[in-house]
């Protein structure tokens, strides 16, 4: 078996033995192809969900719990008796419930016009509780909003395809390209690239092997333009002996880990990405994504990171 | 003495000489078996307590201080005279006190319906102070809530037992297993494992010796599944010459320090853990905690991290 | 070509081949001379803009959206009918609109005096929505303000000029100077300095070459005074063979990356800076920027970081 | 000159040439003995002042600006005419001003009872502005309070004295001791220790020389008890040839930099400290600060970190 001839590297943490053939390890959206079952949910999971979900979802959920809480209190006031709220126009029916709801919002938000106000011990007590709860829910929402905004999410875009192509002096190389979509810069960026191959073993299970790829440049100080990460395919490269078809048979996947200091959030970031054999393109080149204009300024066309020619 | 033959490593910071035999250094909940006496309490300790205590406690304490502050102001208004609050139903007795309390909440939360309002210089002054204080307490509660949520607490679960068992090629190994219970990934995870043995010295005191354990893999890039940390018991291993009984006599304890980058909170985390000799199991194996389903997806049963067979 | 004789270092991430001659890579304000086109705007870009813009702009934008939102609601109330707000002085004309606006502000800020209050289902509903929105906008503004303040922006000032001057033992050196303008200290400060030269190649394009400069001291533990970063021009230095005119022809630019731990914000910082050949001064010296007074205290004149003599 | 014989290390960033003899570099409170003059104040300096000042000062300043803002608005209302505020008891004199002040607080805090409410265009406009300003000031105060609490300030206490005393095998050593006063642990703690000596040069100026001290242990994994940092005085030590009197003449100062991961705040911390020759004690020993009780628990007496015997 050819694979035996290549010096494999240590398991990067994904495991070497599987009962069946498995899909790509890292999905195209950057998550792992792993489902966790049997784990316990905790309050912090809800927080993380609210912080990482889309803005549409976040606004929907926020509206939901704000309206939900006020509906619950409206029910409470309605149950205790809307006539205990002085100044309502209606005390029964859906109009009475609406007034109870509006009184609830005026209490929850602490707007408290006073055109409606509690007039019995019970309603005074409930509305006191609601006003205090309102403070806490506002505090919580403030925290959630701030967390969403201040979350240091990099916007590094990887080229759609990874290339195996002629490089320099007739040598071949494996390469992919990245760009920082954000205006704020990334500094001290590092790349680690690992090839994963899986093949059937004699006992019917599947074995994954891992090969760290040597890179022409694995650290850049600045990252204002595109960065083409290049692995030269020389005799020490695991790609050296493997044909296109063999890479397909071994279900080749490239695992990438990028670390960088993000000037926007003053944090060190780690980004993971993967290219599956189906994302590979042979014998094409990346089109240059930037040019210098007549004023000596460098213009970077962000979307051209994907363009090959 | 056998221990003399093993190359011990430097004190990891826990001390080498004790007057008496002491319990395990790191408790099962991850704290140290050390009580600090004579230290001064400071405001930040209260903050840290509120941030690290359970949610039940947090809600209890928050309710306590919110109600407490309002009770204090209710007393103030009651003492100055509830009849200075215009619009109250009662000015004396517990009903008057209740109205003073409700007026306090309406002021503190800034709901201020106006059905009750201050009608003398004194009450105007006190209520002005309370409203301003309300802002500060709300600010503080907002900060506490946000701190609790945004606290980057990893959820790495360690196997209940550490194993000493056959490993490869007939060699024995010491091993334990970890899993990340959270969906968000850990990257660039490192493990440091130290064996601590204590034995009585000739002068009656106890001496602790420390031995860094060489690991098969001490760094993984990704941590989507379980990680079994393995120390091979070869001639250089401190375990090599020690029998089960000797380890018991020396009160063996394994000290573990894990560092990792947490994708959920974008922070580097350090986790400590320990296995005491009583947590060791001999000649069993960890049951595989994941499998591949028919769609090529990897399914991880989080709770199986503990399962041995 | 002389440049061939000097051992260049790897591309620091800026690229080696340009179609035309380009300006300095890092502008004097620390940004890159790169314009990104075709990138998608996102909500987080607005956040980053609000957090990084000047205080004047921030106050202007904040006033703008606070007034804007209230104008929109004023229009809504005006459209639905100001006579549905009980207690207004005017229901039509610009005075009616002004009352609608004031009612909106009283609702949005949750001040809710109650002298004006909603008196129809429609206005009750709109004002409920506005009060809830007010909470969210306040939360958002709180987050923005906090982000602005807590942003760990170092205040390291670089000398206006970089010098090439006699240093020690008759040897020449390239040097520049820095000072930390802030009272809080920087610890463990590192400097990386790269020379960039661009020259026309045979095919009419421009090639950039990069040379890491060896520094006398590239790491300091403390940074309470000024730090003069010195590169001795010996035979291994790229400056050794290059005349003033040649440096000009090659459009020499010095790229600087400083990393440091900031005691003010408890964060690691990275600062970038550049000196263009036009910022170079020959055969001058930096004037000492600190002296010891009669009480043994060291006095640092921050602005003297620029002074040469 | 004896000092010539010792291999000095690089300037740690404090400078080597001074015009006069200067005091200790790092004061006993951990700040540098450097005064910055001529630097520009900025908004962030006020923030940092409010965040780092004592709680007493913070409460005082906060009260000051809350009352100050309300006094300014009270003046505005008084100037425009208190009779434009409906529901006041007094419109002139200090009682009218008091009512204007109370109205201001009710507006600023958004409590808005409505017993007093604006009744003219001017007062409506001013109070609208005040309510909006109130939101911003509350936001700001929330941020300040949160910053104060969440600031990762370590509570490492250094022994009052550094010792030069017999150590092991008859060898002498320089040592000092630290303890973590806080319950939350410090992990991966490093120590760097530098000796600074200043002496008069032939031209009348003072020269500072620096010597990195080799430590028995310069890194500990855990820090639950005390840590005695030990520098053995062998032939390579700068202390080896220097008598007590010479150390005094050279105004010896020990500069210390501690880095550690703080489990309380999940942050890497850097702490600096210094011992001046006057803090040195000869031929004493640190008294052990912890003992094991009968239940096998280790008891640490925090204040004993200073105790020598």
Question: What's the assembly state of these chains?
Answer: homotetramer
Overall mean confidence score, pLDDT of chain A: 91
CATH class of the largest domain in chain A, named Mainly Beta
Could you say what the CATH architecture of the largest domain in chain A is?
Sandwich
Binned, the helix content of chain A reads: 25-40%
Output the structural class of chain A.
Answer: alpha+beta
What this model shows, in words?
Four copies of one chain form a homotetramer. Chain A has 309 residues and is α+β, with helices and mostly antiparallel strands. Chain A has two domains: 108 residues, Helix Hairpins (Orthogonal Bundle); 153 residues, Immunoglobulin-like (Sandwich). The first copy, chain A, is 28% helix and 30% strand. In chain A, strands 1, 8, 9, 10, 12 and 13 form a six-stranded antiparallel β-sheet that branches. In chain A, strands 5, 6, 7, 11 and 14 form a five-stranded mixed β-sheet that branches. Chain A has a two-stranded antiparallel sheet with strand order 3-4. In chain A, a hairpin with a 5-residue loop joins strand 8 and strand 9. Chain A is elongated, with a radius of gyration of 29 Å. The two termini of chain A are 35 Å apart. Chains A and B meet through strand 2, helix 1, strand 4, helix 4 and strand 12 of A and helix 2, helix 3, helix 4, strand 8 and strand 10 of B.
């Amino acid at each position: 078996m050819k694979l035996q001839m290549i010096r494999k590297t240590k398991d990067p943490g994904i495991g070497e033995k599987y009962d069946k053939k498995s899909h790509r390890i890292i999905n195209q959206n950057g998550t792992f192809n792993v489902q966790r079952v049997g784990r316990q949910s905790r309050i912090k999971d809800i927080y993380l969900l609210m912080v990482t979900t889309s803005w549409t979802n976040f606004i929907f959920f926020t509206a939901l719990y704000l309206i939900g809480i006020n509906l619950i209190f409206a029910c409470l006031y309605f149950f205790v008796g809307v006539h205990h709220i002085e100044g309502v126009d209606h005390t029964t029916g859906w109009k009475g419930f609406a007034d109870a709801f509006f009184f609830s919002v005026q209490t929850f938000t602490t707007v408290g016009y006073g055109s409606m106000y509690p007039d019995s011990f019970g309603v005074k007590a409930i509305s006191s509780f609601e006003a205090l709860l309102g403070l806490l829910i506002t505090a919580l929402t403030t925290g959630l909003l701030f967390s969403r905004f201040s979350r240091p999410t990099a916007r590094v875009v990887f080229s759609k395809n990874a290339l195996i192509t002629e490089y320099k002096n007739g040598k071949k190389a494996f390469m992919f390209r990245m760009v920082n979509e954000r205006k704020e810069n990334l500094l001290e960026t590092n790349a680690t690239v690992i090839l994963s191959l899986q093949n059937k073993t004699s006992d019917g299970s599947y074995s994954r092997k891992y090969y760290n790829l040597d890179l022409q440049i694995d650290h850049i100080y600045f990252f204002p333009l595109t960065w083409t990460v290049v692995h030269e395919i020389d005799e020490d490269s695991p790609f050296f002996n493997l044909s296109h078809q063999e890479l397909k048979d071994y279900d080749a996947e490239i695992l990438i880990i990028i670390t960088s200091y993000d000037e926007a959030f003053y944090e060190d970031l780690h980004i993971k990405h993967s290219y599956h054999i189906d994302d590979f393109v042979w014998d094409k080149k990346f089109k240059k994504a930037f040019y210098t204009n007549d004023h000596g300024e460098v213009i970077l066309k962000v979307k051209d990171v994907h363009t090959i020619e």
